[in-house]
Every structure is written in C-alpha cells, then in structure tokens.
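seq:
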Amino acid sequence: MEQYENLKKLLDEQLLLITKENIPLSKKAKYSIPLCIKTINELKRIINEDGFICRQEEIRFFKEFKPNIAAKLIYNIQVFNIESKKPVGTNKQLKKYFGNFLKDINDFKESNLSFYKYYKSDSCHHDEQFFVRNELNLHLVLEPSTFNYDVTFNTSHDHKVAQILANDLLTTYLYEQLNNLEVNLFSQLEEKVQHPKALKWTDNKNALIELIYALHASGSFNNGKADVKEIARCIETHFDIDLGDLYRNFHELRYRKTNRTKYIDTLKKNLIDRMDNVDEKTS
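struct:
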C-alpha cells in the first residue's frame, strides 16, 4: 500500500502547484489531466507486476486508491470541457449553463441511488462483489459500458466510486462558479450606484447661469444658506463645465434687452407641454 500512498501524495502535490498558478481554470485542468493519466498508468503497471498480497488489499485498492486518482482525472476532464464550452452571455444564461451540470450530477445520483447509499454509508457487505476483479455479477452491473473494460485493472463498481467522488468535486466547483456570478452581479450593481454615469451639460452656459441664480434666489440648497458661488462650483464639478466669471455673466443677463429669464421661461413652457401631452394620451 505504501507505493499507492506515495503515488497519490506525489500527484496531490503536483496538482496543488497547478491550482496555485495564475492561469484560467481551463488551463489548470488541461495541465492536470496528463498527470492523472500518468499516475493511473503507473498504478496499473504496479498491479500487473506485483498483484495483491490478499483479497482485502485488492478490495481496498479498487474501493479507495484507484477511484481517488480516477476521480481527479474525471473532474479535470469535466472542468476542461465546461470551461472550454462556456458561452459568452448574460449571468442568467451562465447560471442555466452551470445549473445543467448540477442537474446531470443529481440525475446520476438518482439513477444509482442504491449504490450511492451503500458507498456513502461506508457499507462493506458487498465489497467482494463490487471491488474484486473477475467477479462480475450480471445482477449487479449498472450500465452496459461496464463490459468495455480491462479485466486486469477494473471491477464492476470502482469507476462508479470514482464518478461519485468526481461529482463531489464538480459540485463544489459549480457552486463556486454560480457564487462568483452572484458576487460579480452585486459588484456591478454596487459600482453603478456608487459611480453613476456622469452627466455633461450640453446647453449654453448662460442658460445654466440663469438656472443657478434662480435656485440661489429660491433658497433651494442648504436651507437657503449656500451662496451662489458654492452652488456654481458644485454644478461645474458634476456637469464638467467651466462657467468662467460667474458675476460678469450674471450682469449680462440682467441687461438683456429682451426676456431676462429666457431659459427658465422655456423650461416652464416645455414642462407644461410635456404634461399636456401626457394628459392627452391618458384621457
């Protein structure tokens, strides 16, 4: 068993190094797959050369050691496929995409519920039927693909254990992806709230100056305690505009030969027109 333990430990160390690399998940999985295959092939070589010293060692190998390594292979192949085929879409589309794989995992569990309960409950009364080579019982075979295997390195159910273990890993991965979608969506919403799209004043400066003085005269800011310069500077910042010499421009408005409140009068007219249009549509 020490040989198996050493191979498993070495593989775990190699896979851990890959997970720490700052690369996409698809590449992490891609680099992990050959390592898993190499380890499985090495296990097969040892079994073919040395065999097992007893029936219990054989059962433990096919119930614990081999499925543990095979699960990592299944997991990385699946992650590579999921990440490589992941659509570029909305959060809703991605949630559905990842959710479909969770459904597949649940379907596997439901279709293999009896064995799933057997394995998860640490039962052992059928171990000699499930995890010993050349003991294939037709009443225990769960799927046709069981026959397409190497009788020297497979039992009827070691692959199912590997799939169960891989599904546990995949479930964690899939929920992490779904959680990341939620976090990203929240961050985007938060950013929009904290950093709303800037508005730029596109009318003429005199119109804005007229509005500033009207707001100041009405005491609309700080209970009427904000002076006109404070109001102007605030509006310059938010609307990304330079109003220049505020007082000189105001005096020019005062000495207009025609309507001194041209912009405000236009605002009033436009608002009344909008209200009248709405009234017509709803009447």
